[in-house]
Specification:
mainly alpha; ABC transporter involved in vitamin B12 uptake, BtuC; flat
Length: 275
């Protein structure tokens, strides 16, 4: 075989598969590193080594790993910062997957929920539910209206792009941009007539991870169960054995004094000082 002959397709496929696995592995390590480093940031600075020890203690239940650490650190890491950071990572992953699905189906790198009008439709539906104060389904009312708005917008975009005789990715994107612009104007109008409720609409549209807990992280509950195993039981016995008052809602709760300090630390993102 001559040196200039092409490699068999199977060799290229194997090489691409190996390269993809390497890239995924590197990205997973980078994501874990970012999560750990971010968990230590905030008003209360926590060393990276301490963050790793606290997480390993929750997984393994080896309380000796956190001996000598500030009793407040486990509260801040496990119950305040880590749920928010993991929620942000999961939401970011979901957005990335939705973008990949749109681009894979339409075979267009410009396709995403924003250019197709899906995000604008969801925002319009949620704004309408907040403006009319619809609470028939409790806390699920606003997400339901957002979902219905997104699906309805997508169906309308498909109908609009197919009215010329055929559906193409370019027509879908152009139709989505037009519909998104119209819905954005509609959202601005809803804000205008919302009066005192405009703050609620703006806050929902901007989003926030400030109040996220392990119940929000669990998809569907695996992360919550992962951090609620034997480590929590041993930690609870450790707290009771040292004469400290624990709380059922906090996996690491070292007395009411630490709870008050943790309540102040929960405002890290807004840079408030604890009282």
């Amino acid at each position: 075989m001559s040196p200039n002959s092409k490699k068999p397709p199977s060799d290229f496929q194997n090489q691409n598969t190996y390269s993809t696995v390497i890239h995924i592995f590197i990205l997973m390590i980078a994501l874990a590193a970012v999560i750990i480093v971010s968990t230590g940031m905030g008003y209360i600075k926590i060393p990276v080594v301490a963050v790793v020890k606290i997480i390993l203690t929750q997984i393994s239940g080896q309380l000796s790993l956190i001996e000598g650490l500030d009793n407040l650190f486990p509260v801040v890491v496990i119950d305040v910062r880590l749920p928010r950071i993991l929620s942000a990572a999961i939401v970011g992953g979901g957005l990335a997957i939705s973008g990949v699905v749109f681009q894979g189906i339409l075979l267009n790198p410009l396709a995403d929920p924003y250019t197709l009008g899906v995000s604008a439709g969801a925002a319009f539906g949620a704004s309408l539910a907040l403006l009319l104060n619809i609470g028939l389904l409790g806390s699920y009312s606003v997400p339901l209206f957002a979902f219905v708005g997104a699906v309805g917008t997508l169906l309308f975009v498909i109908y609009l792009s197919s009215s010329s005789g055929g559906v193409s990715s370019n027509n879908l994107i152009l139709s989505g941009i037009i519909v998104a612009a119209i819905l954005s104007a509609g959202i601005s109008f809803l804000k205008y007539i919302a009066d005192e409720q405009v703050a609620v609409i703006i806050f929902w549209l901007m989003g926030s991870f400030g109040s996220k807990t392990w119940m929000d992280v669990s998809v569907p509950g695996k992360s919550h169960r992962f951090f609620s195993g034997s480590g929590y039981q041993k930690s609870h016995h450790y707290i009771a054995g040292h004469g400290l008052t624990g709380s059922r809602n906090l996996r690491f709760c070292f007395g009411n004094h630490w709870l008050r300090r943790a309540a102040g630390a929960s405002h890290d993102e807004t840079d408030h000082r604890p009282g």
